[in-house]
Specification:
single chain; mainly beta; seven-stranded antiparallel sheet; 13 strands; globular
Length: 180
Amino acid sequence: PGSKITTTAAKCNAVALVSNVASYVYKDYGVDHFTNISHRFATRFVAVSSDDPVIYVYGLSNSVGPLYIGVGKKVVLCWARVGAAYNLYLRCYDGTSIITADSTTLALGVTYYIEVLHTAGTTVFTVKVYSDSAYSVLVDTLTINSSYTNTTWRYHYCLSSFGVGAADTMSVYVENVLVS
């Protein structure tokens, strides 16, 4: 839903996506599809109108809707501007709050290459951030550890607004998503 996200076979692009309007792109892989996870994609945070809006560039969930904190258990990766910093957050939600999170400060307007990793039966979820498309120059590693991540997932999201709150605008893209 929403009209600010365009998609092609290789890219999800949001231009002036309004954070309080429910907009998202997902794919249904079927019940209990994702257990062992090794996903790769590129993302670039292009613009944001103010502090604190959140835009999700990755998510695993068992429910459909914006990747908001208050709707079901999920693991997400999102961009947010806090003051002058542009942060990438790895978070685990339990349906009412953030259970655990890790973050890194990155640059606006730079393409980053993301590798998401999780081994079935474990509680550790890892995101590696690279500066090159060969995934050879590691910028940072984000890690969360929670029993909530030891879940099988049905839906993969490549882009989502927050769906509630202020009407801030953000522009971002996600491309070359490799889901295995």
